[in-house]
Amino acid sequence: MTRTVARSLVLTLTCLYLLGALSVALGGSAFVEGPLPSKTGARAVGGKPGEPNCTQCHQDYDNFGQLINHLNVPGGSLKILDLPEAYEPGKTYPLRVQLANDSTAAFLYRRWGFEMTAVRASDGEGAGTWVLSSGDNLQIVMGNPGDFASRAYVEPSFDATHEGSASPVEWSMQWKAPDVAAGTIHFFCAGNSANGNLGNDGDFIFTTSDSVADLTSPTVSSSWGALKTRFRR
Fold it and tell me: What is the pLDDT of residues 18-44, one digit of tens each?
């Protein structure tokens, strides 16, 4: 068995194990119902480690066993749209996620997916609440036990993967801010532009992030005289 084949086999078995374990936890429908949680590529925040992204399972290798980069390649993009400059505690905000990619244009059954979470900058815990409409075909899943257990992830079900749709595609959802001001909140998102073969090869992954502050946190003001004194030191 070649090293490339062995590596691909281990990767496939690992991903199948993870999918199977999550399938049991969610009633046997994990694979067709959405991506694994805690795969947004979020950076380390507030003492919490960074999250992996979807390339943990979606990988391709060339004939020499070298990993082919399918992460944030040219010709594609992922955007979190309509975030306010600052949030008001308890207020609900409509948001959109837009995913674009020209690398899968030739695949008739191409599909699109994403996963997004909101976390407090202070401690990395989940922040706010996702609010979905019945016709969105989106769902909310909780993060992996341990560091990411408090994080909620909004993602599409299989029916919301825009089969065959041309780039770009969008999803709409709402985010309800925490009832009490929680300082800066980071939004982390990963998107999957898939070729539609329902395997882990030939797919393209994109990641992005954005942040919002709250409207109630006090701002520190300073007089011109104080500023001049500071810079004389």
Answer: 333 333 222 223 345 678 999 999 999
